[in-house]
């Protein structure tokens, strides 16, 4: 959850820009900063997890696009997969073959590897 300071800053200086399908709310300052552009931030809908920001909004937050996805949605390519949050630290985290928590047995070496041995 956002701190009381962030909520007050948002109430006094923020201009609401839009929301995403996960319930995150996006804001920017009404006035430009000394760098000539508005400051942008997100108030998370559920958990405070940056991996819950969809790609279009991430691009807007980092000034890679000027228009937010609420006014100009991203074109979704047929090869793109749906957004998934970062699963590191959960039971659904990726574990490569041979990982201790997924059996600990790796495939035998194929013989194409030669270890370095000091002379």
Explain the overall architecture.
With 119 residues, the chain is α+β, with helices and mostly antiparallel strands. It has one domain (4-102). It is 14% helix and 13% strand. It contains 2 helices and 3 strands; from the N terminus they run αβββα. The protein has helices at 4-13, 55-61; strands at residues 14-19, 25-29, 40-43. It has a 3-stranded antiparallel beta sheet with strand order 1-2-3. Strand 1 and strand 2 form a beta hairpin. The longest helix has 10 residues, at 4-13.
Task: Give a brief rundown of this model.
With 119 residues, the protein is of the alpha+beta class. It has one domain (4-102). It has helices spanning 4-13, 55-61; strands at 14-19, 25-29, 40-43.
Report mean pLDDT, rounded to a whole number. 86
Following the backbone from N to C, one meets helices and strands in this order, namely HEEEH
User: Biggest sheet: strands, sense, closure?
Assistant: 3 strands, antiparallel
Please work out how many helical segments DSSP would assign. Answer: 2
SS-derived structural category? alpha+beta
How is the secondary structure organized here?
Layout: H1 4-13, E1 14-19, E2 25-29, E3 40-43, H2 55-61
Antiparallel strand pairs: 1-2, 2-3
Which terms would index this structure?
single chain, 119 residues, alpha+beta, three-stranded antiparallel sheet, 2 helices, 14% helix
